[in-house]
Amino acid sequence: MIITENAYLRADGRKGIRNHLLVAYLVECAHHVAREIVYPYRESGVELIGFGGCYPNAYAAKMMRQLCTHPNVGGVLLLSLGCESFKRTELSEAIAASGRPVETLVIQQSGGTRKTIEQGRGLVQQLLARMADVPRAPLEMREFIVGTICGGSDATSGITANPGVGRAFDRLVREGASGIFEETSELIGCEAIMAERAVTPELGAILGTAVAKAAAYHKVLGHGSFATGNAEGGLTTQEEKSMGAYAKSGGSRISGLLKPGDVPPVGGLYLLDVVPDGEVRFGFPNINDNAEIAELIACGSHVILFTTGRGSVVGSAISPVIKVCANPETYRRMSDDMDVDAGKILEGRGSLDSVGSEIFDLSLAVARGEKSKSEALMHQEFVLTYKSFEPIGPSCLPRV
Amino acid sequence: MFDSKLLRLDPLDNVLVAIQTLEPGDCVRIDGREITVPSRLTLGHKLAARDISIGERILKYHMPIGSATRDIAVGEHVHLHNMKSDYIDTVAMLARHSLNGSHDNH
Q1: Edge to edge, what strands does the sheet with A15-16 contain?
Q2: What's the gap in Å between the CA of A385 and the closest CA on chain B?
Q3: Is A223 in contact with B17 (Cβ distance < 8 A)?
Q4: Residue of chain B whose alpha carbon sits nearest to that of A234
Q5: Each residue's pLDDT tens digit, A190-249
Q6: Mean pLDDT over all residues of chain A?
Q7: Does the pLDDT at position A339 exceed 80?
Q8: With an 8 Å Cβ cutoff, are A238 and B90 in contact?
Q9: Confidence bin at B61 (pLDDT 50/70/90)
Q10: Rounded CA gap, A205 and A198, in Å?
Q11: Which tens digits make up the pLDDT trace of A288-307?
Q12: C-alpha closest to that of A22 among A67, A85, A53
């Protein structure tokens, strides 16, 4: 099935549903200059991302490379202070090798804040012109990648929005697309059921190990992903929250396990392991929802399905975020931010199946160019922190 | 037979989910019995579908979500005060969270 005839065809063969120019700062010291460069062009598809750390990190480097060469990205302007350790030339070469226009500004060499902002805005205009004639091609369902996440959960999340997304995921995967779910630390207690759904016993063992790693990680830190707001919303335990979160994955067989930046090789359902490997080193696995959204996008997600009960408003740079609101009272209070009213199930105004179809249809509409609510409101949150991962093994991915 | 204010996610569950606010003294129907709700429950909170003994598993989605830390009577609110996680101690976690002022609210 062809979703749209008008996808952006990249030189590496991948296809995007947006054609964003990224301005990417490579250390916090270049953040302000990058933001000022973006500001006049924020309604022209120019978006800000970056890594704040001054010290090197292989994970952050891979994330930046995958994000700057994401199919929704048409060109990149890199912003360096000059003395940070980020390997800007390596990143610039990787972007150029992917066939995208890329420019770099080094603030210490460009004459400081004001001059760099001026030069940067000039380069943005040039880059936008160079990106304008990207070839168009049909986006097929098998090339479409959708990620899902929940944030600001309450007890309605697990009853309405999450199983609703699960139905949409079932249909996407059945028709050949890729679906990615994550938050292994929110799947504690679901290990056995998940292992049974793996396409191979080896993968089943890997999925179990990933969740055990998350549990061990949280034990060392002395915290879980469970927060005060969850308890106020009626959720009592981590595993109760897990079962509700797990419902987003639907009922398909699980085809593989990814780590941040790994792109699904073929259609199917994938678990994204977001908990770092090795000893606990940099604190919380993910400091907030946007850190996870950035990881789903680094895995190639064109669109993010974000379920919320208490009412999150965030969006993201690079890929549109669709809000599926679990709680009908939250929906009424925050309808400007919400795309789908999944809480209608609680009021007898819809079923899980009808909500699932609505989510599926909206995902395709957004892929065809319709703006999601958070996208239209210009939410472009982005967070990238320090982490460390071992590469995935051969049993993690399906054979192509 | 259940009240329209309550949602049963699986026939084997021993808890029901409130889908409307219940006030103390409100009557709900659980398995054909009129039960008076002893405390306020807002949307999403759980109440016991039957009497539950201390140590018994709490089932929601037909999945264990923790266990009872004391005997719970039918209709009673089931939450942090009478059940616990079998994985990570939520109360200790929340105490630590509020000490740190953390809002890791997924």
Answers
A1: A15-16, A2-9, A136-140
A2: 15
A3: no
A4: B45
A5: 777 788 889 999 999 999 889 888 888 887 887 666 777 778 878 888 788 888 888 899
A6: 94
A7: yes
A8: yes
A9: confident
A10: 9
A11: 999 999 999 999 999 999 99
A12: A67
Beta strands at A136-140 and A2-9: parallel, antiparallel or unpaired: antiparallel
CA distances A75 to A15, A28, A86, A106, A131, Å, are 14, 21, 19, 18, 7
- What dihedral do alpha carbons A198, A204, A207, A209 form, nearest 10°? 180
CB–CB contact B105 A237 (8 Å): no
CB proximity A155 to B under 8 Å: yes
- Rounded to whole angstroms, the Cα distance separating A370 from A326 reads 22
pLDDT tens digit string along B7-44?
877 778 999 988 888 999 999 999 889 999 999 998 88
Buried b (16+ CB within 10 A) or exposed e, A302-329: bbbbbbbbbbbbbbbbbbbbbbbbbbbb
| Contact present, A380 and A314 (Cβ < 8 Å) | no
Q: Do B80 and A230 touch (CB under 8 A)?
A: no
State how far Cα A205 lies from the chain centre: 25
B99 interfaces chain A, CB cutoff of 8 Å: no
Q: Is the pTM of this model over 0.80?
A: yes
Whether residue A352 lies within 8 A of chain B, CB to CB, comes out as no
Q: What is the DSSP letter of A132?
A: T
Calculate how close chain A gets to B52, using CA atoms only, in Å: 16
- 88-107 in chain A: CB under 8 A from chain B: none
Interface contacts A/B by beta carbons within 8 Å? 133
Location of structure tokens 């699980």: A254
Strand partners, A184: none
Which H helix or E strand runs over A95?
Answer: helix A88-97
In chain A, which residues have their Cβ closer than 8 Å to the Cβ of B66? 236-237, 239-240
> What ipTM was predicted for this assembly?
0.82
Residues of chain A with Cβ-Cβ distance to B98 below 8 Å are 228
Q: What is the DSSP letter of A29?
A: G
Specify the pLDDT at position A336. Answer: 98
Do the Cβ atoms of B65 and A240 come within 8 Å? yes
* A277 token code pair: 């490997």
Q: Is residue A21 packed enough to be buried (19+ CB in 10 Å), middle (13-18) or exposed (0-12)?
A: buried
Per-state percent for chain A, helix, strand, coil, to nearest 5: 45, 20, 40
CB contact under 8 A, B106 and A152: yes
Identify which of B43, B83, B88 has the shortest CB distance to residue A218: B88
The number of beta carbons lying within 10 Å of the beta carbon of residue B93 is 24
Distance, CA of B74 to CA of A316 (rounded, Å): 45
Element of type H or E holding A217: helix A201-221
